[in-house]
């Protein structure tokens, strides 16, 4: 018989850097889950990724105080900032301020990597979503 699920916890944690301090500790503690066990398992699962890369994780908490978790691909904004070689998006959007540029070919690579976590039917749809994200961050998209 399947275990009874008592809830889901969604967090974004840097790869290989999960520790009991907030946001991890309080989120897991209120469900009575073993915080250190999660930290060890998460860090082991993400040790091969770039250190500090933000990894969204969905933790499923069960009634018997056990858990399972699924890691997802980093957010689009992380990839866009990296591709544009900038540290953050534009402070004011829509005033013509651009902080960097990305090529369509770069967006295709990002879309291919993120496809399993994106709400798109094909790579072209995913690229269009990324173009919108880039624009809203003040990153100019160039034809390659």
Automatic annotation (TrEMBL):
PANTHER family: 60S RIBOSOMAL PROTEIN L12, LARGE RIBOSOMAL SUBUNIT PROTEIN UL11M. One or more lysine residues are methylated. It comes from Commensalibacter papalotli. Gene3D superfamilies: Ribosomal protein L11, C-terminal domain (1.10.10.250), Ribosomal protein L11/L12, N-terminal domain (3.30.1550.10). Residues 72-141 form the Large ribosomal subunit protein uL11 C-terminal domain. This is Large ribosomal subunit protein uL11. One of its GO terms (biological process) is translation. Keywords: Methylation, Ribonucleoprotein, Ribosomal protein, RNA-binding, rRNA-binding. InterPro entries: Ribosomal_uL11, Ribosomal_uL11_bac-typ, Ribosomal_uL11_C, Ribosomal_uL11_C_sf, Ribosomal_uL11_N, Ribosomal_uL11_N_sf. It comes from the Bacteria.
